[in-house]
Amino acid sequence: MEVYFREGLIVSKRVKILMIRVGGTNCDAETKRSLVELGAKVDVLHMNEIVKRKDKLTNYDALIIPGGFSFGDYVRAGAVWAKLLEAKLGKEIRAFVSKGKAVLGICNGFQVLIEMGLLPDLGEARPEATLAPNIPPGYNCRWVYVRHESSGKCVFTRKIPKGKVLRMPIAHSEGRLTFSKEREQELLKKLCEDDQLVLRYCRPNGEPAEGDYPFNPNGSFHDIAGICDSSGLVFGLMPHPERAFYVWQQPNWTREKAIPQYGDGKLIFEGLIDYLTKSH
Fold first, then answer.
1. CA angle 99, 51, 108 (to 5 degrees)
2. What is the C-alpha separation between 64 and 106, in angstroms, rounded?
3. pLDDT the model gives residue 279
4. For the structural domain made of 4-279, what CATH number should be given?
5. Which positions ≥6 away from 168 have C-beta within 8 Å?
6. CA 184, CA 109: separation in Å to the nearest integer?
7. Per residue in 228-276, pLDDT tens?
8. Which of 66, 83, 161, 203 could lock 207 by a disulfide, CB 3.0 to 4.6 Å apart?
9. Where are the domains of the chain?
10. Is 107 tagged catalytic?
11. 10 — pLDDT class (breaks 50, 70, 90)
12. Is the pLDDT at 1 greater than 80, yes or no?
């Protein structure tokens, strides 16, 4: 039996994470490196390999849908991949979550989870939300600040203090989370009451962005940058934690007086590994 040591814990089974990719995926290497640094075993497989052997999914503890521009983001960002996943692996992914296993969608992966209806999971008819084109329009690639809003439901962030400000980059054209205009306040209330609002765009001091560009880089309703489902096991966010894992990935790291090794993105992956380690 293999034994692994991590932060004072002894675990008899190494955490195994599956990252799926398709044409247009481009953030899998950085995401894998971040997770391997934390001791996880990560397999990056094309979706077709899982479709051929659906039982493979049960061998893993978590599933990650990484960033990129799957299938060229035709129709809508993430829409084509979402339809394929729903048709070929939808039942298996939902069964995966029902067993207490975690799913993470980063940027394009978040778009996929929204299109599949796995998020926001408010008990409404699908789709419940959409990630619409940015306002102002166009591709936006910049570092942003987000504030952690969750009280502990989301397994990826439950060790991050509520109110903590994180700095990570965004890179997307369609990241503006919206609800039906007629019901947006009602659905926002449900999201907040069930502790599913995880990250909000904010100013450097933690004050809400209040829709102001560039603090809110895409016009997202209520400055929403990341949400989880009702179980806390499915998490989607527009910022890229894998691009903020090491401090040297930050644009101004050489100006820091005391240079730490890691950036804020590590906290997201660390939360996942901590949850999976303890679940073993």
1. 75
2. 8
3. 83
4. 3.40.50.880
5. 143, 144, 146, 239, 240, 241, 243, 244, 263, 264, 265
6. 23
7. 999 999 999 999 999 999 999 998 887 877 778 899 999 999 999 999 9
8. 203
9. 4-279
10. yes
11. very low
12. no
Query: Rounded to whole angstroms, how far apart are CA atoms 47 and 79?
Result: 15
- Residue 172 annotated among the catalytic residues of the structure: no
55 C-beta neighbours (distance < 10 Å), count: 8
Per-residue pLDDT tens over the stretch 48-85: 999 999 999 999 999 999 999 999 999 999 999 999 99
CA distance 149 to 197: 6
Q: Is the dihedral of CA 71, 228, 132, 162 positive or negative?
A: negative
By DSSP bridging, strand 4-6 and strand 9-11 are antiparallel
The whole-angstrom distance between residue 62's C-alpha and the CA centroid of its chain comes to: 12
Longest CA–CA separation in the chain, Å: 56
Active site residue 242: yes
Residue-wise over 90-102: b if at least 16 C-beta within 10 A, else e? Answer: bebbeebbeeebb
Tokens of 135: 């306002």
Residue among 148, 172, 222, 240 flagged as catalytic: 240
Are residues 67 and 107 in contact, defined by beta-carbon separation less than 8 angstroms?
yes
Residue of 27, 30, 86, 107 with catalytic role: 107
Q: Of the listed 128, 174, 242, 270, which one is catalytic? A: 242
